[in-house]
Amino acid sequence: MTREDILDLFAERGVKVTPQRLEVAAILLEKPQHLSADQIIDRLRGSGSRVSKATVYNTLNLFGERGIAREVKVDPIRRIYDSTRGHHYHFFNVDTGELQDIPADDLELGRQPDLPEGTEPLGVDIVIRVKNRRN
Amino acid sequence: MTREDILDLFAERGVKVTPQRLEVAAILLEKPQHLSADQIIDRLRGSGSRVSKATVYNTLNLFGERGIAREVKVDPIRRIYDSTRGHHYHFFNVDTGELQDIPADDLELGRQPDLPEGTEPLGVDIVIRVKNRRN
DNA sequence: ATGATGCTTAGACGAAGTCTAACGCCGCCC
DNA sequence: GGGCGGCGTTAGACTTCGTCTAAGCATCAT
User: Fold this and answer.
1) What Å value separates CA A52 and C1' D21?
2) Residue A41's domain is classified under what CATH number?
């Protein structure tokens, strides 16, 4: 994703542009990937950036709210952000901790249950847990 | 779930019986419900029990491993344990934090994607996120 | 300039869970 | 029956991840 794309995305989602937000976006949105806040901080530090921890967390929360990145819930131990914004699901390899996208088209949801009284849908999270096959 | 049922379940899953494990099981497995470690500790304390925090966490981890309870991943902030063991899914109300079971029969999975190379399936977690309907 | 607003920062803080070292209990063996 | 080994439990220290706080800055409008 180019700098231009990122600026467009910010505008589209009503996110004010700041140098720090651009730095975080440049790392996370570079390519389809799954990163934790910590990994992003490491990469920032690695490239000599001095964006503070608080700003990285604030930014990731903001990106999550505005649909600029997606928070994946698999591992209660750390929050993972997914740079792929579209409708899709995940494989989670419990042996390696690896996370892999499943395009929406590859998984069909048949019958869906009635929602609880007085609620409306927000989305469906699906995680297929797998492990390495031994031998 | 009666004390007898719990003892049977422990035996079936190869879990040694201790007074502390029975206390935790009695609370969690009493009825279909979703509890955090903290809630379980509160209830233990409320009924005058002195089981330590470390033991509650150890026990819940053990229950999770042995399929005596199920860890539900919805909220990265805290781990939730589900007393319903069978195959089922969840509604998660983001407004109330409420978690509700979806019987496996109410949700059909159509086409499923091929698993990643060299892996075998462990299970499928599905969470339908909902919010309260305004007005 | 002045003030208002909102972003960023370092570091303190908080919550949830794990770890450590000591202790207790129980079964086993001689 | 006394000693031993292993497992479970315990209190509290500790770790980790994330949030909060208070101060400092930038930007904008007047």
Assistant:
1) 15
2) 1.10.10.10
